Amino acid sequence: MIGVFDSGFGGLTVLKEFIDKNSPLSQYDYIYLGDNARAPYGDKSPEVIYKYTQEAVDFLFSQGCRLIIIACNTASANALRKIQQEFLPNKYPAKRVLGVVIPAVEAVMEELEKSANLKKENNKIGVIGTRHTIGSKAYEKEFKKRDYKLIIYSLACPLLVPLIEEGLIKKVAARMILKSYLRKLKEKKIKILILGCTHYSVLFEPIKKIMGKNVKVINSPQAVARKLIDYLARHPEIAKKISRRKKRKYYTTDNVDQFKHIGEKFLKEKIINIGKASF
Ligand code: DGL
């Protein structure tokens, strides 16, 4: 089984790509965990984000996962490195945990490679995310490891996750807040914008519209799915140990009925097999 973890509903935008019937990833079994009772993570300290992420990883491994995708930028940016370098080698040396920051950075690099107009130095890239994703500078650090000299403008948009979790994104007030955040990046004349929070994928179309046709918007769930296909092809020893019966199981740390109700809107699919997780 593959575990998919997020603080709440945002990771469902990633799972949606994995279980898309046209994706080779849809053959695998998945367990989704949303830590809705403690969401949002975006304003919590890095220590707390690490503790919550470690508990989620423990839970998903205890359910039989071989591989976990942390489908949350906040947890990927603040906890993944320590999970990979300290927690796994000590406790689960044969298991793997991957995140969502590197796939989005690689998607930008692919975009730069293929677009002649973007090849010059000093391209302006925008990143939006939660306060602690932006505060961690995880995207800047990843970009620094690559060849291109880029100018990164990152912007925390702390009001967006609560608006999305509350189902208020279609309200006029929400659109005004979104516009006012994005205006700051439009003024910088960025060429590419990374949605550095899995929740923001549900705002992909309005964000694209606000940014205009000269800005390429990177929707990270699709990038994460592409990179997972690559990863499993490069690691057949892991791929062959993952069960493939197209099973889907959902866990939330909060109210199961509410998870089902809101989750189905994210997933655009029925959520049937669902339970409450406690750890
Ligand atoms: N989906 C998470 C992310 O990608 C949400 C953040 C939160 O819980 O604040 O960052």
From TrEMBL:
Q: Which Pfam families match?
A: Asp_Glu_race
Q: Which residues bind substrate?
A: D6, S7, Y41, G42, N73, T74, T198, H199
> What chemistry does it catalyse, as a reaction equation?
L-glutamate = D-glutamate
Keyword Acetylation appears in the UniProt entry = no
A biological process term (GO) from this entry: regulation of cell shape
Q: What is its EC number?
A: 5.1.1.3
Described by its record, this protein's role is as follows:
Provides the (R)-glutamate required for cell wall biosynthesis.
Q: What is this protein called?
A: Glutamate racemase
